[in-house]
Input
Amino acid sequence: MSGKGDTMAKLKVIDKNGKPSAEVDLPESVFSYPEKGHLIYEAVISQLANRRQGTAATKTRTAVSGGGKKPWRQKGTGRARVGSTRSPLWRKGGTVFGPQPRDYSTSLPKKARRNALRSALAGKLADKRLLVLDGFEIKEPKTREALALLKAFNLDSALLVDVAGNANLFLSVRNLPAVKAVDVRSLNITDVLAHRWLVFSRQAFETAMERLK
Output
């Protein structure tokens, strides 16, 4: 990274032939951010928790239908006293301590989420797993089009980041298990860490840097 007073570090933009065609600035505020493992961990845990629906539910004895009639009289039968056939002890009775709907979401400060993403992006750059392309040229929404793009740049597990208007890109990678395409506005730390390569279009990269500065 550039030192104090030096020009900002740059990254080469690659064209469809795999050759450098231009350069983009690497903001020091993003790519000089130190690796903070615990912050990344907290951001991932928060994001995964917020995805949980928390809708699992079982019926307690009050929610199971039936059971309003007392099975037998209280005394004189020699059997244990029972008030309802929907007791948890009975077949078709209610469940004891079963799951109930709950909210799993956690709150992580916006600044902490942004810093965690900065740390992850800096790690990708340090590992030389960050690419910026002129653009994703997908002529039609076909899987073979996406495979040709991946083969051209020797990408196996990759997160492709572009703007929402490139519908052909998003449609063409749907059937590729190790590849995911996202709109730059949806860029998140979980997806970044889940793939070996992080590949931006030039437009998406510049948009992401403006948001993370």
